[in-house]
Amino acid sequence: MLEIDNLSHVYGGGTPNAHHAIEGLNLSVAEGELLCIVGPSGCGKSTLLRSIAGLITPTGGQVKVEGNVVKQTPDNLAVVFQDYSRSLFPWMSVADNVALPLRRRNMDKKQREDAAREALESVGLEGAARKYPFQLSGGMQQRVAIARALAYRPSLMLMDEPFGSVDAQTREDLEDLVLKVRGHHQMTIVLITHDIDESVYVGDRVVVLSKAPAHVVGDLKVDLPGPRDQITTREHPDFVHLRAEVGRLVRGHATV
Amino acid sequence: MSAQTLTSIRPASPAIRWSRRAAGAVAFAALIELISRTGLADPEFLPPATEIAGRAVTLLADPAFRAHALTSLLAWAIGLAIAALVAVPLGLLLGSVPLVDAATRSVVEFLRPIPSVALIPLVALVIGTGLQHRVALVVYAALWPILYNTMYGLRGVDPVAKESLRSYGFGPLAVLMRVSLPSSAPFIMTGVRLAAGVALILTVSTEIVAGRGEGIGVFIFFAGIAVPARMADILAGVFWVGLFGVAVNALMVAFDRRVFRWHHVQRGEEG
């Protein structure tokens, strides 16, 4: 599904202030997988995501989505950014925000509106379609951003610290929402986070990055019994063990 | 906190705000009345406010004055519309293609500080003193506030918003039209509002300098060169121009508050 091959990216290459964000990063994600990428702050996670999305051209290596080398944004990809208040368009109603990217699909107005309504329903916001983003809470705005991505029916959804700007309770609700929608939609999800617990709770697999220049230092399969639950999963010995392991990997490379 | 302090920090209701403004206007008129009646200023140069007001009302019933007003209104509206139609696309171009901006900057920086009023005689020589004269000068003067506000608005467009649309595979033109333009629209609106005032100044000034044909400025010009000068006519004409300016501004502010509410909320101007 997603192949990252010896990826490197340098900002301001050739200048004394050159910043090596990523160096020699290899990663492959299987179809339908929910991969969480964790790493210390400022380690190049967002650069990695922007390279996958084709928003920047990496200075070295390549990214392949469904076998095609990414040169510009792939058609079958959607991104959910951390800053919902900046990534939603404030001059449009919630429904119009969700429907806008569908102009890239071969859909008439009616189809776009229907798809938007359906996506809003799936995130529990059917009542907010006519509202404007500024009339919603932060958690609801991020639900709108998720609905916008879902309506687009991507085969790969990238999430860049999607719950970094909401309170703890909302965060847990949104984590469960992601788990729910991935069950309904056939898609691969790559979720970037700096929250170790979150990565283990949400992911099928957790990849740990080193501090910048980022490369993979750990790759763990998350094998937890039963459907995930905010209380029982988090108290399960395997969960506790895994989060400790991820924590050691993150810390070990953050403090060097 | 007591109910009384809450009332005092709450912004005044529209009714209260309007009555305050009206009180100010009445006080100003009373001052003119007083100065004129007491002979502090020669009533021939400053007629009492009641006389100016009376003249303003009778002028409205005068078909000749109404024709003057309509001519001015037409020049103002056409000029402002053309200015907006030229300045917004130009601003989008200069604001989004750095190369074009750099190439034209010296010309723009040279033209901008030229007072448009100084061009009135020159333009008259080139294209005559009809409607086209007024429109040309209005366009020239009204262009700048709209152009600069459009470019300013574009500079402030959130990169995350642009990236969001790009991430769905939209190209640069779609990003410009669907994100940058609507995001800058409140700034463009401010530019148009400022330009509306500038356009009014240019309309009347051009008419006064041209001194022929129709227009409020022409009416004021002839009232001024009459012997003795018809001061009440001049001031009544000025009153109507001023009132029009205030009304247009108020309408545009109301439009801005309504249509661009998302913008004002985001900037914390209202809850």
From TrEMBL, chain A:
GO molecular function annotations of the record: ATP binding; ATP hydrolysis activity
Pfam families with a match to the protein in the record: ABC_tran
Keywords, ordered alphabetically: ATP-binding, Nucleotide-binding, Transport
Signal peptide location: none
Residues in ABC transporter domain copies: 2-236
Keyword Disulfide bond belongs to the record: no
Gene3D superfamilies in the cross-refs: P-loop containing nucleotide triphosphate hydrolases (3.40.50.300)
Domain of life: Bacteria
Record-linked PROSITE patterns: ABC_TRANSPORTER_1, ABC_TRANSPORTER_2
Keyword Ion transport on entry: no
InterPro entries assigned to the protein according to its UniProt record, in alphabetical order: AAA+_ATPase (IPR003593), ABC_transporter-like_ATP-bd (IPR003439), ABC_transporter-like_CS (IPR017871), ABC_transporter_ATP-bind (IPR050166), P-loop_NTPase (IPR027417)
SMART domains tied to this protein: AAA
Protein name: NitT/TauT family transport system ATP-binding protein
TrEMBL record, chain B:
Membrane topology, as annotated: Multi-pass membrane protein
Pfam assignment, any one: BPD_transp_1
Annotated ABC transmembrane type-1 domain residues: 69-252
Keyword line: Cell membrane, Membrane, Transmembrane, Transmembrane helix, Transport
A Gene Ontology term for the protein's cellular component: plasma membrane
Compartments, record wording: Cell membrane
Keyword Transmembrane helix: yes
Protein's GO biological process: transmembrane transport
PROSITE patterns the UniProt entry points to: ABC_TM1
Residue stretches spanning the membrane: 73-97, 185-204, 216-232, 238-255
Gene3D superfamilies named among the record's database cross-references: MetI-like
Primary location group: membrane
Family named by the database record: Belongs to the binding-protein-dependent transport system permease family.
Name the UniProt record assigns to this protein: NitT/TauT family transport system permease protein
Source organism (scientific name): Nonomuraea maritima
